[in-house]
Design a protein that fits this description.
Distance between the termini: 45 Å
Helix content: over 70%
Number of strands: 0
Oligomer: single chain
Shape: globular
Strand content: under 5%
Largest sheet: none
Order of helices and strands: HHHHHH
Radius of gyration: 18 Å
């Protein structure tokens, strides 16, 4: 997770800083602009990440073996299982600043608690059901995928709600 997460975090952090500044400006000047910006950035992030995610999903063990050596092939299998989760994280995480901009830290806290429960629950259930490491990684990845999709949807919904409030108010 760290081998793949570090480059994603670096790019994601840069995007999130730019998004934060532009989104704050849009919130003050044009709430519809914030909504357009949110979806435009999401689309760009998805397009940027889809090819690496597909390549990783298709050839994780081969790539890890080639780059890191034979002993890393199993890690490539784990990365293969997490490829779609990484894609979702890459799109949703930079956009999570939406909660701060809209002063909805309550949603951020709720999402983080939910994410913790998904991660711990996936590992715990796999253990209780007698699963192996590969199954635990798959369960974790699925749980986190649900978490990141939820993060994106919560962020989008928070913007939509603010748009409606501004239109009514």
């Amino acid at each position: 997770q760290r081998v793949l997460g570090i480059p994603l975090t670096l790019v994601g952090h840069s995007v999130s800083q730019v998004f934060l500044g532009r989104a704050a400006t849009e919130l003050r000047s044009d709430i519809h602009g914030l909504q357009k910006l949110f979806f435009a950035v999401a689309k760009r992030l998805a397009l940027l990440a889809v090819v690496p995610a597909v390549v990783l999903a298709a050839a994780g063990p081969v790539l890890f073996r080639f780059v890191f050596g034979e002993t890393w092939a199993e890690a490539g299998s784990y990365a293969q299982l997490m490829a779609i989760m990484f894609l979702a994280s890459f799109v949703a995480t930079p956009l999570s600043h939406t909660f701060n901009i809209l002063e909805r830290q309550d949603l951020s806290v709720a999402w983080n608690v939910g994410r913790l429960m998904l991660a711990a629950g996936a590992i715990y259930l796999t253990h209780r059901l007698g699963g192996n490491a590969m199954q635990a990684i798959a369960a974790y990845s699925l749980g986190m995928l649900v978490g990141y999709v939820s993060l994106f949807l919560l962020s989008a919904q928070a913007i939509r709600r603010r748009v409606r409030e501004r239109e009514v108010g």
